[in-house]
Here is the input.
Amino acid sequence: MAGRNLYCDRRGVSPVIGVVLMLSITVLLAGTVGGVVLTASSDLNQRTPVVARSTGQFVTGPSGGCGANTVAVRHAGGDPVPADELEVAVALPDSDARIVNLPVSGTALSASNTDDPDNVVYDYCVGGVIANGGQRWSAGRAITFQLNAGGTVEPSDTIEVRVVHAPSNSVLAAVELTARR
Here is the structure.
């Protein structure tokens, strides 16, 4: 009779099921948190170069090789960055443009090198480290390009140029330039 009561007594079953469920939830939660942490830490391996300082120049009149509306952003110190890791974002008062898929093989941009719905960037004149197959953007070297003439920019207009590290999508340099003649 004692053996028969052992199988019919259900008072100990409920706490055991509760402990098993709590343990299952804890293991599942720990696995989820661990997966998220490991995924996030893999992004940390992508090191963003540091450009300590940069300078720029924006000339609206004729300025040598490229002509009018030439923009130059010079790397003044910090880590060198390969040209194929660069993008250039240009913000004018009423429109934006982006130069992508760098470097170019010559000195002209193709449709695949611009995200420019308002035709802000002049397609046939880029220079410096992003032209002719590209070089490393390092101290003393410049990125140059030309904005379209024809009323886009007037003297005393201000533009913002950002040089972006494409793999990490981090801004390496941001320069606000005022057009001068």
Remarks:
- The first strand starts at residue 51 and ends at 59.
- The chain has a mean pLDDT of 82.
- The radius of gyration is 29 Å.
- The chain is about 20% helix and 35% strand.
